[in-house]
């Protein structure tokens, strides 16, 4: 029993003279009835038999007091001289300090033994002489509490001796202070798994972990017994009842041992209506139109669903401050879902906006963002030396700073900040990691006389997205800041590395296959493996033109395999496990390795189970919303087969059925030497999804050209009719704000959380916590202002959504078509199609196309003037090629002027020499090789017009 008593001054003045702590140990005759009467099993309440200090010390004090007074009376009978003469003759009659010495106070126990329970043992334990609790020898972890908290006197363990199995009550008393607790003595451990409507209990031996049948189990919520039962020959018992948030297991084994387990349960998966709410794009500007689409299904379990109930709904729009902007009426249809649109106000604040859909007394939420785009007073252009950069190559180029009139920004102070985001492909989808700063030499520089700044960025060793933030100042009131994106593709190639299984036995030859995911001239030339247990490694050469290689792992353990090119760059990697004699898991853990990451129904999942020590018994379960299947390690059930590979490793083979989809949990639980451990591993099963493909008649379009899009929906290779929603959005929007809406397949059919909670009677402890009642001032709001996002791109029309088709239906052949005009914007467009068929199966597809023009113009001046203004007419001509000859024709007031120009790559400022003295329309067009490329115009208004 552990006891903590206050030390320091309180010990010195209040407790130390007591001499120790009085301990009484009682045996509870009827433990189950006793525990059922307790309201809180963590804090046992038993009324004491208080006696107080008693008469012993009182009588002692009275005797000493009366004795002293009687001697004083006798002293006053004789004179002082007579008393001195007598004591000199007879020294034994000298009284000394006997009269003034205080009475000896004896510390008596102030509580009498409890009458209801048999007293097993009582003693006084030397509290302050006992060795305090301290960390074990050799435990010295940097930063651990054992390094800066010294052992405190009074924090001790009190041995209670070996007792018979049962329930015991302990009283600890110091003076008038008394504390009680209970001690559970049992050779049985209760391991429980609780779910929403069920409890599974497994009783096992505390030392060897063997199954122990015949234990009486009571499942209680602390107020009453919900249900009860007795464990069978396998030591298991299943009880059916709705699980409260907190419940207790009261158990008594066949030997009379008593144990208690506390269980906590909360729903992590709830099956009801799921509404998928998304917008045409994730980011908007103030004044933009927002299109919203709603798709939904009523789910009954992870796989089975039905159409939603057709009903009206209200869509509320909340701005970044939480204020309600507007409410839109939306009608949800069982087949087509719902759709709506609204327009943001011109003064919409920047930040995150929330969509709240009220449908059938439930509220569903989605979000989008609003940001402002600011036009700077001079432009910052980026011209790279190459179109594409690979890993390992330094990024070079130049920045060009120009005023709207074409004059270079001379001697501007430029600050460069570079962050890198590593790129990875997950499910053929580009994922962005965190943004980490990159050290730059010469991060502060000055532009030259032509407004140029040389740019030299370090090479990236991994595929990355460079985010270059340029902040420039020409001495004006505010700086111009822009962010440029530079994609650095994988150097050379991107390969996949795979094998038939994720583990093998030591000494077996394992064949690894590799294949390029994209065409490249570079190939891997060497492979390398690293054993994680001892960091030993080995490398070998790959056959020229080969697609596989063989490795024989001599030692069991965990390995990392990598493929490298001739420059040593990693092209592919894989983790691999090898079983064999001597392979163990870390102490207190169980390792489970599945042979595959994804299974098809009908396949067999192979699970390699590694224990930290030789284990003969464990509980194996399949779990999701409840314990679906159970088996003992020593007696396999019919839902799996087991093979013992060595003392510490087993291989379990589980046939995969359709009911496992989308995933199910394989759990291993064991106990040994008073400790227990369990480990879960997921079995992921493929869920049928719609294959939605988006195809355009070509990949590059001119501005204003008609785009033809073909949509195809199929299921398992066969065409199927489905409801589709398609959006065509500027890809640069996703550079500023990644897609907020999740993948539709992961939304409707996500990997389910395990709804089973595992606990043990070994972890049942007493606890308490004291909180201060003194009021505390609320903390101040710590909020940073959101930076204004600036998007500088070569475009003319501020159109971010080129097309939005909220409701398209593919025919029986799985075909649907739509067209749209390419906006007057030069960018890359992303086409996203989401669909659902009548059975609730969903899918999502994506395609890209580009709008381009080799030459395009942009006015560097306002497009409307008033009479009296003296405009300095000029424009920018952007060229995608270097040294390109063009002819520029300008027309105003019936006069035409032609110029022959040679353009360099990037922005070229051209000054127009027209003498403008009257109202009219100024137009300009440029041509190259007799082909008209672009035409633009501006006008002068008459007096009084704007």
TrEMBL record:
It holds the Pfam family A2M_BRD. CDD domains: PKD. It comes from the Bacteria. Residues 590-736 form the Alpha-2-macroglobulin bait region domain. Gene3D superfamilies: 2.60.40.1930, Immunoglobulins. Residues 801-892 form the Alpha-2-macroglobulin domain. GO terms for molecular function: endopeptidase inhibitor activity. Belongs to the protease inhibitor I39 (alpha-2-macroglobulin) family. Bacterial alpha-2-macroglobulin subfamily. This is Large extracellular alpha-helical protein.
């Amino acid at each position: 029993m552990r006891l903590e008593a206050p030390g320091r001054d309180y010990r010195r003045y209040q407790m130390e003279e007591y001499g120790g702590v009085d301990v009484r140990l009682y045996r509870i005759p009827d433990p189950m009835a006793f525990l059922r009467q307790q309201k809180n099993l963590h804090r046992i309440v038993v009324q004491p038999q208080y006696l107080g200090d008693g008469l012993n010390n009182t009588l002692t004090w009275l005797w000493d007091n009366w004795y002293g007074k009687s001697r004083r009376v006798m002293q006053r009978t004789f004179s002082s001289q007579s008393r001195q003469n007598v004591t000199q003759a007879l020294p034994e009659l000298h009284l000394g300090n006997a009269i003034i010495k205080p009475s000896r106070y004896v510390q008596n126990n102030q509580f009498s033994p409890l009458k209801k329970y048999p007293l097993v043992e009582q003693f006084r334990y030397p509290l302050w002489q006992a060795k305090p609790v301290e960390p074990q020898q050799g435990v010295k972890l940097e930063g651990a509490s054992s390094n800066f908290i010294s052992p405190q006197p009074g924090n001790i363990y009190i041995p209670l001796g070996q007792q018979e199995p049962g329930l015991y009550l302990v009283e600890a008393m110091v003076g008038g202070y008394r504390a009680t607790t209970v001690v559970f003595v049992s050779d049985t451990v209760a391991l429980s798994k609780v779910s929403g409507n069920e409890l599974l209990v497994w009783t096992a031996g505390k030392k060897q972990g063997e199954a122990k049948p015949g234990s009486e189990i009571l499942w209680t919520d602390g107020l009453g017994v919900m249900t009860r039962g007795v464990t069978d020959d396998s030591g298991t018992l299943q009880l059916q009842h709705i699980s409260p948030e907190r419940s207790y297991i009261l158990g008594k084994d066949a030997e009379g041992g008593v144990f208690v387990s506390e269980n906590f349960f909360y729903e992590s998966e709830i099956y009801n209506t799921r509404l998928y709410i998304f917008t045409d794009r994730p980011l908007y500007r103030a004044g933009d139109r927002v299109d919203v689409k709603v798709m939904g299904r009523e789910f009954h379990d992870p796989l089975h669903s039905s159409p939603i109930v057709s009903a009206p709904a209200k869509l509320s729009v909340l701005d970044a401050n939480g204020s309600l902007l507007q409410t839109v009426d939306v009608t949800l249809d069982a087949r087509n879902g719902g759709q709506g649109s609204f327009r943001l106000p011109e003064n919409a604040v920047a930040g995150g906006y929330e969509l709240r859909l009220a449908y059938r007394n439930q509220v569903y939420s989605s979000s989008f963002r609003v940001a402002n785009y600011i036009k700077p007073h001079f432009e910052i252009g980026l011209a790279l030396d190459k179109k594409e950069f690979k890993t390992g190559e330094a990024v070079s180029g130049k920045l060009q700073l120009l005023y709207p009139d074409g004059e270079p920004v001379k001697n501007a102070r430029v600050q460069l900040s570079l962050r890198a985001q590593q790129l990875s492909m997950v499910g053929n989808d580009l994922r962005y990691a965190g943004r980490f700063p990159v050290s730059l030499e010469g991060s502060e520089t000055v532009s030259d006389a032509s407004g140029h700044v040389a740019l030299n960025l370090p090479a990236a060793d991994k595929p990355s997205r460079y985010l270059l933030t340029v902040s420039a100042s020409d001495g004006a009131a505010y700086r111009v800041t822009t962010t440029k994106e530079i994609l650095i593709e994988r150097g050379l190639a991107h390969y996949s590395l795979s094998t038939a299984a994720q583990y093998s036995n030591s000494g077996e030859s394992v064949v690894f296959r590799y294949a390029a995911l994209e065409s490249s001239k570079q190939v891997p030339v060497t492979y390398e493996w690293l054993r994680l247990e001892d960091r030993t490694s080995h490398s070998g050469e790959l056959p020229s033109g080969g697609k596989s290689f063989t490795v024989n792992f001599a030692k069991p353990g965990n390995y990392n395999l990598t493929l490298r090119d001739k420059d040593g760059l990693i092209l592919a990697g894989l983790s691999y496990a090898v079983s064999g004699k001597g392979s163990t898991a870390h102490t207190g853990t169980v390792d489970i390795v599945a042979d595959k990451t994804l299974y098809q129904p009908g396949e067999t999942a192979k699970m390699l189970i590694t224990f930290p020590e030789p284990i003969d018994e464990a509980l194996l379960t399949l779990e999701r919303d409840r314990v679906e299947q159970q088996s003992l390690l020593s007696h396999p059930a019919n839902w799996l087969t087991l093979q013992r590979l060595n003392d510490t490793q087993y291989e379990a083979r589980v046939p995969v059925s359709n009911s496992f989809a989308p995933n199910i949990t394989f759990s291993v639980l064991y106990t040994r030497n008073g400790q227990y451990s369990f480990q879960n591993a997921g079995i992921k099963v493929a869920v049928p999804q719609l294959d939605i493909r988006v195809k355009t008649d070509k990949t590059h379009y001119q501005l204003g050209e008609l785009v033809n899009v073909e949509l195809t929906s199929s299921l398992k290779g066969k065409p199927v009719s489905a409801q589709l929603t398609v959006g065509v959005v500027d890809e640069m929007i996703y550079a500023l704000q990644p897609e907020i809406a999740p993948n539709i397949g992961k939304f409707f059919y996500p990997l389910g959380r395990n709804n089973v909670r595992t606990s043990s009677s070994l972890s049942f402890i007493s606890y308490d916590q004291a909180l201060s009642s003194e009021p505390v001032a609320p903390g101040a709001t710590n909020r940073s202002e959101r930076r204004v996002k600036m998007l500088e791109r070569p475009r003319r029309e501020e159109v971010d959504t080129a097309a939005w088709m909220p409701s398209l239906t593919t025919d029986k052949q799985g075909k649907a078509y739509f067209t749209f005009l390419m906006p007057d914007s030069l960018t890359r467009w992303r086409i996203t199609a989401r669909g659902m068929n009548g059975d609730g199966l969903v899918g999502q597809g994506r395609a890209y196309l580009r709008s381009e023009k080799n030459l395009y113009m942009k006015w560097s001046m306002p497009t409307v003037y008033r009479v009296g203004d003296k405009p300095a007419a000029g424009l920018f001509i952007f060229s995608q090629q270097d040294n390109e000859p063009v002819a520029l024709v300008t027309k105003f007031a019936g006069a035409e002027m032609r110029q022959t120009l040679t353009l360099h790559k990037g922005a070229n400022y051209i000054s127009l020499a027209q003498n403008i003295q009257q109202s009219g329309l100024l137009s300009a067009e440029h041509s190259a090789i007799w082909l008209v490329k672009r035409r633009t115009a501006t006008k002068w208004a008459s007096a009084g017009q704007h």
